[in-house]
Each structure stands twice: as C-alpha cells, then as structure tokens.
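Lab channel / #folding
Pinned by the channel admin:
"Please post every new chain as: sequence first, then the structure tokens as a reply. Keep commentary short and put observations after the output so the thread stays searchable."

First post following the new format, from NK:
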Amino acid sequence: MLFSEIYGSYYNTVGKIISEAVKGSLTDKKMFEIITRNAFSESSVSIPQHLKDTSWPLLTENNKTVLKSSPAAPLSHLQKSWLKSILLDPRIKLFSPEIKGLENVKPLYNPEDIVYFDKYTDGDSFSDPEYINNFQTALRAFRSDKALKIEYIDRREKTISLKCFVKNLEYSLKDDKFRVNAFYQGESFTLNMNRIKSCEELEDELSENQRISQRAKKEVVLQLTDERNSLERAMIHFSHLEKEARQTEQNRYTIKLKYYQEDETEMLIRVLSFGPMIKVISPEDFAEKIKSRLFAQKALTTPEESSKKGKYIYVGCFVNKHELNVLTKNIRKNPLPQAIENPHITFQYKPSTVDEGLFGAKIQVKVTGYCNNGTNEGLLVELFSHNKEISDMINRIKTPHITLSLSDNGKAVDTRLLKFSPITPFFIEGVFEGVHY
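Reply from TO:
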C-alpha cells in the first residue's frame, strides 16, 4: 500500500492536538494554531467541531483527553523497506547508523539494482575497513574540533605527513568520492579520503577565534533574471553551496548564497560569468569588488574594440585555485611574484560571439607538465569534454596550458612557449566560463 490515511494531514494534525491535550496544555487558541500550521484552511472549522461535538470522541470537556499517551503512527512496510534499502548503501554505513528493528525487513531495492550514469567508475572504496576507520576518525575530529595527524599519499605516490583541522567533509556525486576540506595555520587545502593512508585524533583543539573564523560563512544576495537558461545554470553552478532561492516576479529570482571567506575570489568569478543575468543586491563590499573587476576589465580595451569583439574578453576552462594549489604544492618551484587569481585555459580571446548556454559545462583537465623559466610559470594540460562544441574549441588550441604566476615583465600569452617537463599526471575538474569587459 503506497498511501494510508493515517499518514495524511488530518490524522497528523489531530495527533498533535491530542499530544497537547495529554500534556494538559491544550487551549482553543493552541488548537487553532496547530490546525493552521499543519492542515488545510477549511480544517480550522471542521476539526474543532468534530472534536467538540464528540463525533470524534477523543476530547472531553475543558480540552482534556481520554487517552493516556500521545498517538504515534507506526512505520509502514513500505517505509521500512525503503529505510532498509537506504541503510544498505555503503556510503550510509560510514556513519554507523542504527539498523535495529529492520533485521528481517526485505529491502525495497538493493544497491546493485541502481544503474548510475554520468559518474566516474573509480569511486572510493567505501567498504574497505581501513577507509571506514579513516573516515570515521576524520568525522569524530570534525565533530569534536580536534586536530588530525594524517599520513597522505600525494599525486606522486609519495607518503607525506601533515597536521590539520577538518573544516568539513564533502561528497562528489559525479566522482563518487569523499573529500576532506581542511586547514592549518591559515592555509586551507583539500584531501581525497581515498588517499589517506592513516589518520589519528590529536588532543589539540580549535581555539574560539579559529572556530569562529573557519566555521563562519559570508553571505551574498543576488537578483537573477531567468533568460537563456540562467536559473538552471545558477542552480548547477552553485550546487555545492548552502543557498536559498525564491521567485519575486515572473522570470525574476532572489538567491542567497553562503560561502567561506577563502572562496571569495572564485565566487566573484562565478558571479561575473553570468553577465547581466545576475545583479548583486548585498553586501555592498561584494558589489564593489564586482565593479572593480568590471572597471579593470574595461580598461584593457577601448570602447571601439569592445563593440567590435563582443562583450567577453576571453572564454575558457576555469579551475578552482585552492584545489590547484594543493595538487601542485610539491611540484612548483619558486613561484613568481604575480600570482594568477583565476587559473584557466583560454579557449578564445575576444570572441565575436559566445554561446552562453555552454557556461557551467564540466571539463576534465589532465595536468601533464610543468615549467618555470623565471618569467612565466605554468602547467601543460590535456582537456576532455562530452560536449561537441566545447570539444571543437579544445581541438583548436595548439598548446593547452594554465598560467600559474608571472614575473614583473612576464606576459600570460607566453606561457604556451615554455619547455614543459613531464610530471606524474593528475586530474582536476574545470568549468566552461567567460570573463566580461
């Protein structure tokens, strides 16, 4: 049975009223509030009438009840079967949930019954005892604000030892992997759970100042106009953030996003990628930073050039700076003074036309080489995309590369001329975006 009336709004509303009566705190006003909050508008008349004229003999005079305990709806067989299926998922088992009472219940479906698409097949080993121990140790450290000592296998397959505090644990549905977002002494970094060889809790605890600075989030309020599929793009684009969206008028939405301070540069880039489809409502300092970037971009060209070339300076594949810094930490040698804030691979410079419907599309970036000649520092990369239009743009790039830093006299365009040395390849995810004038 998919539905039973005992799980409907009338039964649940009356159940809440009876619970208040059992506690001896039910009044006519409270009854009305419960009905308004949990049932339909016409119920504010019908439910009190049935309870008071004894057609539903549940209440006595003075809003007392004949029942001695609060009513509780039992789980249906369907609900138990669904719960059993969820608890069989190896990812759920990492959190050690209680399965008591469901031992003899047949699951609604088994994990092997689900076929996933658009997901990588090299996901984490969720059932491995060592992985489970490391995950649960990191989870305990996060909940108790304790430090961790971690033995980690880096991209060059070398084991390194590090100490950190856990900011949060995140799961990537596409990669089928858990990651540990961590920090220590002002530096933030991301670790793949599958590459943690061992970890142990230390007695070190977060100070109150560290706790406030690392857990506190900033908020930006945006106004979005839903044209050219911008609402769907925004929901995908900001899917990893805590957010609240509501429609204010036709094709117009207000979106609140929460993010960590260290991710603000990336947030500015992502907001700018939507062009006139997004307007910053608050805070004022975020809006001022957007304006500063726009003025800086406009200064790079004359109005005549801008009208000839279109509204984008360049489009390409953008990667997360913090993640890239962690992955290249043991590769880079003597970074140059001008660090690139928005690491990317340029696809087109001053394009005459841009298909903005492609913005937000995922691109896999394989890093294969590195060089620093004292003027330019960069990475040699290979790019992969399922989208034909993006693949065609990729095939037109002679030397796909990412500029990491420049000397005072360096030019980003010259990074393609570097003599890159091979490195142990690693992957990072990028997105197709554009930067406005």
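NK: The radius of gyration is 28 Å.
TO: also worth noting, The first strand starts at residue 146 and ends at 153.
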